[in-house]
Amino acid sequence: MVPWDKAPVTKAALWTSLDEQGPPPIEGEWHGLVNHDQDVILFWGGAWNRGGRRLGWTWIGWHVAEDEEGAREPNEITRTPAANVERMLAPLAHEARIRIMQTLYLGPKSSGELSEATGLKGGNLYYHLKELMHAAYVTASDFAYDITPLGCQMLITVASIAGKVVADRGEQGLMVTSGGWEE
Predict the structure, then answer these.
(1) What gap in Å lies between CA 21 and CA 25, rounded to an integer?
(2) Please, which residues have CB within 8 angstroms of residue 66's CB and are 6 or more apart in sequence?
(3) Are residues 45 and 88 in the same domain?
(4) pTM for the whole structure
(5) What is the spatial distance between Cα 90 and Cα 82, in angstroms, rounded to a whole number?
(6) Residue 135 C-alpha from the chain's centroid
């Protein structure tokens, strides 16, 4: 990982008008900073407010794949065990669990309210709730279930990515696209 004092200062605007076409200016700036094969700059952040409960998160990663002598360095992407990625994503890999999390995103719900909102009944609902609670994406109190801060972060992240890269092609069904992320 590049020391923070050696990382470039971002000068481009992070936001663009909804009327503008093309990538945001920051993307163009970052393209000029990833000069070696496998260089990475990543920014993951967000903020959420529900009923006065505020959540914010920021993670910035900067990795140059070659050191000053030109030697290749492993990075977090290749060092992270695949089992860790699977553990994080597996609870999200079921439509019913996403529907539960989307419902809880709007506010805590009782099991009856969750059943009504998601169409899941009895043991089926409780099975998926148990999986989400085991992952720490959902929590339970005496009267309601709620999404956790981690669950909120994961839902916002995966739903935003899916909203960008999954397209409904009518009779062809859902298809993963580039989401406009190609050069």
Answers:
(1) 11
(2) 36, 72, 73
(3) no
(4) 0.76
(5) 12
(6) 15
Shared domain for 167 and 153, answered yes or no, is yes
Where in the sequence is the domain holding 100, given as residue range(s)? 83-183
Rounded Cα distance, 50 and 106, in Å: 8
Residue 175 and residue 90 share a domain: yes
- Final residue of a domain: which of 79, 94, 124? 79
Which residues are CB-neighbours of 17 under 8 A, at least 6 positions away? none
CA distance linking residue 62 with residue 7, whole number of Å: 7
CA–centroid distance for 133 within its chain: 18
At residue 42, what are phi and psi to the nearest 5 degrees?
-135, 135
pLDDT digits (tens, 9 = 90+) for 96-142: 999 999 999 999 999 999 999 999 999 999 999 999 999 999 999 98
